[in-house]
């Protein structure tokens, strides 16, 4: 029984026990109805406490039920039944009260929180809005603007702040159950205080308009947030029940939207990536003492991430000056964390003085549990580093490389312990970006793989397993669709038009703005590295090489595809002439591209290479590709990732696009066999995800 009712003296106790997170699935909703009835009928009970077993209060509606036919009783009705009781019910909250969980608590007549409890309405992150009275009860409890801020930010409000806001009535000082029982006893005999009977706050049109604009800027393309603002503000002047009906109608409409399906796919995909048979039940190795080699962009960021996670870090550089620079960079990043309120000043000081050692002697790595190499992207340098590591690292230490493209098997060969070697591919800035590709080489020990996943968890990152190949999952797919957009520029599209079309599609940034940010030298180096393997029919972005050769490296030189100065970056005014010259040299006649074709070509290229990545096992499943592209490459979350998007768009349409594009370039546009097979069989990428789970 997921919900039970018993009595303790004059107080009824309703307990919800539905692991893992006490979600309000159908059995919980039905159980709550029965418990409310039992409490109402129990004349000896003068008040009740509602409490949850396990690690948390109710963390929301059961997301696994979404998209299936709804089953009675519905959560809003359950909450109304509880709120309508004529004896008070106290919600005793620990862990996280989220979504339908917080809505349930707001339908109770008083709320007490454990000091560590957090509460919020995260429905918008799933493409929904609070659908069990949250849009009506939260503004009545805490006021209009705090409620709208909470709903649109989806943030988890700590218990102490919730008390200040009036969201809860008390903080537990001792045992939560005992304190909740005491609160219930103090309310016994009183009329229950129903949130629905509180007056709705007045409208604040200017503040609401400002919030609406800020949300649209922060989350372009998303519909849940704006709809939630509409429902809350449109219902301020109407009776509670009418407001509930407006909320229900909007909730059901969002439930049917492709955004809801995409965002929930992203939610479950991010939880499924760690579910790999090869490491099931495998214990990770220790992770307390971390070594980092190289203190440049990545090494300093990785060291900062580890310090923020409370680990001991030893960073090795080439000389004292570089080691001192690395320490300064790390101090600057920690200072940023202090400014953003993520780190206390004392914690920064102790991280720098007690937990960070910088130096030049590899012997300092002798005690490290895991060592991450982040030196230059050169096989020769990496081989030297790993040979040295093999001499100094303790037995069982994990030896990791942060290489972006290089062969991890070859790097492992530089040691006498290839089982301990793995790729841990962080993304820049490494202390901010959530993605970590765990690159598993041929001989990597499963324990070492499990340690890579454990490190991600410790750093609050999302780890995705990748196989060895040039660029692993993300950079390999990126290289491929970069080639497609570069080809469009050669054929006549303007880089700014491509950036705008893809930003309109939902990408955080267009590819040319990204190039400017990363530095045009990075792309030029990669092209130089791959030049020897180039096919004569590969199309080289000569225009990017020209910018590089003339020293226009992007943001760092103030000039690249855009010009950077005061205000918004402007398109580089010299670029059109440069492009004309390049096209003329290559004998190309430019043609116009519309936005639709730009998106179609980019997405077809991305999905086609992603299909190859899945087929050859570089990614375990299509969902792994989605998680990589969502968390490392700015793919719009509300489209669910390229594979989810492809399923929704239609694999047959993508395949026919590829065949059409091949009519003019059959070297680049070759359909991936997996894509052809799925279309022939009438299946989708989602079917492969499902098969992998069964
Ligand atoms: N429904 C169903 N399953 C859920 C769930 C939910 N609401 N929330 C979490 N789970 C599952 C996860 O899928 C995971 O399952 P797995 O172990 O099989 O992979 C398990 O519970 C544990 O979840 P996490 O790995 O995420 O555990 P954490 O401890 O890291 O986080 C959490 C716990 C903070 C509760 C986090 O899971 C979370 O944020 N959950 C979603 C909360 C949410 O969005 N609630 C709103 C739902 S919409 C709603 O309520 C509509 C209403 O307004 C009508
Ligand atoms: P960087 O040039 O900023 O830093 C490299 C650092 O390594 C320099 O400070 C250098 O002094 C040091 N170094 C070189 N040889 C060394 C040695 N033998 N011992 C100790 N230190 C040594 O380079 P960046 O950008 O940090 O890249 C490092 C690695 O991370 C590369 O393999 C790169 O491909 C990879 N990477 C880079 C990303 C990025 O966005 N910059 C993203 C993900 C991976």
UniProtKB/TrEMBL annotation:
Keywords in alphabetical order, please: Fatty acid metabolism, Isomerase, Lipid degradation, Lipid metabolism, Lyase, Multifunctional enzyme, NAD, Oxidoreductase, Peroxisome
Coiled-coil residues = none
Enumerate the catalysed reactions. Answer: a (3S)-3-hydroxyacyl-CoA + NAD(+) = a 3-oxoacyl-CoA + NADH + H(+)
| Subcellular location(s) of the protein | Peroxisome
* Span of domain 3-hydroxyacyl-CoA dehydrogenase NAD binding: 290-466
Pathway, per UniProt? Lipid metabolism; fatty acid beta-oxidation
The principal location of this protein is: other
Transmembrane ranges? none
> Where do the 3-hydroxyacyl-CoA dehydrogenase C-terminal domain residues begin and end?
471-564, 598-683
Which Gene Ontology MF annotations are present? Answer: (3S)-3-hydroxyacyl-CoA dehydrogenase (NAD+) activity; enoyl-CoA hydratase activity; isomerase activity; NAD+ binding
| Highest taxon above the source species | Bacteria
Protein family membership: In the N-terminal section; belongs to the enoyl-CoA hydratase/isomerase family.
Q: What is this protein called?
A: FAD-dependent oxidoreductase
Protein species of origin: Paracoccus aestuarii
> Lineage from the top down?
Bacteria, Pseudomonadati, Pseudomonadota, Alphaproteobacteria, Rhodobacterales
């Amino acid at each position: 029984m997921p919900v039970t009712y018993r009595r303790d003296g004059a107080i009824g106790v309703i307990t919800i026990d539905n692991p893992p997170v006490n979600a309000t699935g159908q059995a919980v909703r039905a159980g709550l109805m029965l418990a409310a009835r039992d409490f109402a009928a129990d004349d000896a009970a003068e008040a009740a406490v509602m409490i949850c077993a396990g690690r948390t209060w109710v963390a929301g509606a059961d997301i696994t039920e979404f998209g299936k036919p709804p089953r009675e009783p519905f959560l809003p009705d359950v909450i109304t039944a509880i709120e309508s009781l004529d004896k008070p019910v106290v919600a005793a909250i620990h862990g996280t009260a989220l979504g339908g969980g917080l809505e349930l608590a707001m339908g109770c007549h008083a709320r007490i929180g454990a000091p560590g409890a957090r509460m919020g309405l995260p429905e918008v992150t799933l493409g929904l809005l609070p659908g069990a009275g949250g849009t009506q009860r939260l503004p009545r409890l805490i006021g209009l603007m705090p409620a709208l801020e909470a709903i649109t930010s989806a943030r988890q409000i700590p218990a102490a702040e919730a008390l200040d806001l009036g969201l809860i009535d008390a903080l537990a000082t001792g045992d939560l159950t005992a304190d909740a029982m005491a609160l219930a006893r103090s309310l016994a005999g009183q009329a229950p205080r129903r949130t629905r009977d509180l007056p709705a706050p007045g409208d604040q049109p200017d503040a609401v308009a400002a919030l609406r604009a800020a949300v649209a800027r922060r989350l372009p393309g998303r519909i849940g947030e704006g709809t939630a603002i509409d429902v809350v503000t449109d219902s301020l002047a109407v009776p509670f029940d009418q407001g509930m009906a407006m909320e229900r109608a909007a909730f059901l409409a969002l439930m049917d939207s492709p955004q809801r399906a995409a965002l929930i796919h992203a939610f479950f995909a991010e939880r499924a990536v760690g579910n790999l048979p090869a490491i099931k039940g495998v214990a990770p190795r220790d992770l307390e003492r971390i070594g980092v080699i190289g203190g440049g962009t990545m090494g300093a960021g990785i060291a900062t991430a580890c310090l923020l996670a409370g680990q001991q870090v030893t960073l090795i550089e080439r000389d004292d000056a570089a080691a001192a620079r690395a320490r300064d960079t790390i101090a600057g990043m920690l200072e940023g964390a202090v400014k953003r309120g993520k780190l206390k000043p004392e914690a920064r000081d102790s991280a720098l003085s007690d937990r960070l050692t910088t130096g030049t002697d590899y012997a300092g790595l002798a005690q490290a549990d895991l060592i991450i190499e982040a030196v230059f992207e050169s096989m020769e340098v990496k081989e030297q580093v790993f040979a040295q590591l093999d001499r100094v690292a303790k037995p069982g230490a994990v030896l990791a490389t942060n290489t972006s493209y290089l062969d991890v098997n070859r790097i492992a060969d530089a040691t006498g312990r290839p089982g301990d070697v793995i790729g841990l591919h962080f993304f820049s800035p490494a202390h901010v970006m959530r993605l970590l590709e765990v690159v598993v080489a041929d001989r990597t020990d499963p324990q070492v793989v499990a340690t890579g996943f454990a490190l991600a968890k410790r750093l609050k990152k999302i780890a995705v397993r990748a196989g060895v190949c040039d660029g692993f999952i993300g950079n390999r797919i990126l290289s491929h669709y970069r080639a497609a957009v570069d080809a469009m520029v050669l054929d006549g599209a303007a880089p700014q038009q491509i950036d705008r079309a893809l930003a309109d599609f939902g990408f955080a940034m267009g590819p040319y703005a990204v190039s400017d940010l990363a530095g045009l030298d990075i792309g030029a180096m990669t092209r130089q590295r791959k030049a020897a393997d180039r096919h004569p029919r590969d199309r080289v972005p000569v225009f990017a090489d020209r910018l590089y050769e003339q020293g226009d490296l992007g943001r760092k030189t103030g000039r690249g595809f855009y010009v950077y100065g005061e205000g918004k970056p402007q398109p580089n005014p010299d670029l059109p002439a440069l492009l004309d010259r390049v096209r003329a040299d290559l004998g190309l006649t430019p043609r116009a591209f519309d936005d639709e074709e730009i998106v179609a070509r980019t997405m077809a290229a991305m999905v086609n290479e992603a299909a190859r990545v899945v087929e050859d096992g570089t990614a375990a499943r299509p969902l792994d590709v989605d998680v990589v592209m969502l968390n490392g490459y700015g793919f719009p979350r509300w489209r669910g990732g390229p594979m989810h998007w492809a399923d929704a768009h239609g694999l047959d349409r993508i395949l026919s696009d590829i065949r059409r594009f091949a009519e003019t370039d059959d070297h680049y546009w070759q359909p991936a066999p997996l894509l052809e097979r799925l279309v022939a069989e009438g299946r989708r990428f989602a079917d492969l995800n499902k098969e992998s789970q069964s």
